[in-house]
């Protein structure tokens, strides 16, 4: 076995062990429904299934999947505009198949996902959805709700626009039991285990954002396309880093930090991310 194969085996074992140790939390003893499978993108030609996790290079992976499933329509992933990569009709997801077809694919296809340090992913989602002026749909749908619930004496404008949500307010919204009861989290901050169901679906490969290029190209190699398709690399200066995440957490009370860690705890454990050193857990 190559070192890479061993590494992926270790990652798989970590998921299995975490699922077993937290079976009450992670399994909830339920059967997956087709609705649970809308994040699993299927590539029939190469018999692959990719579970996409927003804020973990999913735009580029969707582009790659469009090249793989486009039957020659695209050759360069980076020529596909980002917004086109997110048009749902451009890729086929597992929930569009019949139950026997779903089971056949889950059993026989190569399944993979990519993960990222949970709080870094969270800060990345916050920065993208709440601090960019163009994300008005997010401001309207979530921002106004967060301001209404978390901000005392909010101005009429803030209540109407919802475009100035502070990170502290976002965190308070996430840990509010009311939020959890009301509706599932938006996919940009939903936990990986809720999006991809790693305790029910046995993933062959778990890629990490921290080793994105090596892991991605290894998967493409296993798929037999590595000789003509490489994962797009680009230096992104705006990327959310560990230092930046540390800064965002400075103003979060230790009580809220502890509650937030509980929400994302399974993702930390399952994908072997240690408790961040900047956290002041109670």
TrEMBL record:
The keyword Membrane applies. GO terms for biological process: carbohydrate biosynthetic process; proteoglycan biosynthetic process. InterPro entries: Carb_sulfotrans_8-10 (IPR018011), Sulfotransferase (IPR005331). It holds the Pfam family Sulfotransfer_2. It is found in: Golgi apparatus membrane. GO terms for molecular function: sulfotransferase activity. The keyword Magnesium does not apply. Keywords: Carbohydrate metabolism, Glycoprotein, Golgi apparatus, Membrane, Signal-anchor, Transferase, Transmembrane, Transmembrane helix. Its EC number is 2.8.2.-. It is a single-pass type II membrane protein. It is an enzyme of class 2 (transferase). GO terms for cellular component: Golgi membrane. Belongs to the sulfotransferase 2 family. This is Carbohydrate sulfotransferase. It comes from Bambusicola thoracicus.
